[in-house]
Amino acid sequence: MRVAYPRVEVSLPADAGPHAQALPIDAWYAVAHDREVGASPRSVRILGQSAVLFRSGGELAALRDRCPHRHAPLSDGVVHPDGLACPYHGWRFAPDGRCVAMPGLVDGSPDAPSRRADPLPVRVQDGLIWLSVGEPPADPPRLPLVGQSAVHTLRWRFDVRADPVDALENFLDPTHTHTVHPGLVRTEGSRRRVPVTVRGLPGGVEAVYQEEAQSGLIARWFGADIRESYGRYLWPGLAQLGYRDAEGTEKLVISASFVPASTPGEPPEVDLVAVVSGRPPRWIPGVVMGALLAPFLKRTVAQDKAILERVAPLRDPERRYAMSPLDLLRPHIDRLLADPERLTPSTPRSTRLDL
Ligand code: FES
Ligand SMILES: [Fe+2]
Q1: Burial environment of residue 206 by CB neighbours within 10 A (0 to 12, 13 to 18, 19 or more)
Q2: What is the pLDDT of residues 243-267, one digit of tens each?
């Protein structure tokens, strides 16, 4: 059975996915944790374009990582109270890009339109730094649970040398878990029939699984009270795995921002900025729960990274991926990336999988 995306014409054949496609430039990407930008500037890349993040006078700023003078990388510079100093001739740039100091200049003002660095849209939200190197929509998406009382949050990052959409799909795909994470996430010998509902959301799509604790070690140890989970994609680069108890209370949400670092012509590279937020049981402190859970999550990530990096060099951009009724979200993700006008809430559709 094919899961159709309601109110959207399904034009792709069920057995053929689209060609490789790039994530859009006119979007917000969560490129770093807020705490990662301190006294030193930090360089980040989106779709091959470099930016520098820094804090000056208590204000977070983002500039293109290129000095207007001789195009030196500003991320190699030094932060001052009034701005970021270029590592070459020391011109200093305020958070809005104005040149506020030019060492050696006696007469005249350092600032002129041609001497300004390019400021970029930047925002701090939910402990993440959201950046755009294009023209982003009004607001970045919100993360569930973060900042609520009795919620403990873990943050980490890693990079994968793989196609960003492939990495994003992998994060949301339950059907590889028996083979890539055997015993850890799910176990081949313990498949159970799971009702799944796929529905469109404002800005994305999600699959909701009526699955009591997954068959692997992680859920048996940490998720005994879980009755339902979801895999959610939010355009263009955010994915979330959420777990709810019988009352529908969210117990754990793993949000992952997939930042396409490379340009489509380069070897693919994606930076992942991940936030794990959970409500630990009352009898166990959040830090203890986090410290116990982290090694399992890191092992899972290492397994995903290994398979994705084996796939990446074999990928033939001339050949479409084969699709099946098990590929619940990928066709929707591809369609939303091809045409963001399809970001429309819609009626849910149900199916079943043996997971
Ligand atoms: S290259 Fe930046 S000040 Fe000269
Ligand atoms: Fe995985």
Answers
A1: buried
A2: 999 999 999 999 999 999 998 788 9
Cα–Cα dist 37/202, whole Å: 31
Q: How far apart are CA 84 and CA 128, in angstroms?
A: 21
Q: Which atom of ligand 1 is nearest to the CA of 87?
A: 2
Which ligand 1 atom is the nearest neighbour of the CA of 67? Answer: 2
- CB count in 10 Å sphere of residue 32: 22
Write the pLDDT tens digit of every residue in 217-238: 777 777 778 899 999 999 999 9
What is the C-alpha separation between 103 and 278, in angstroms, rounded?
Answer: 50
Question: 117 with 181, same domain?
Answer: no
Nearest-CA residue for ligand 1 atom 4 is 89
CA 54 / ligand 1 centre spacing (Å):
17
**Do 171 and 285 reside in the same domain of the chain?**
yes
**How many CB atoms are closer than 10 A to CB 93?**
32
Domain span including residue 228: 152-354
pLDDT of residue 223: 76
Q: Domain for residue 4, yes or no?
A: no
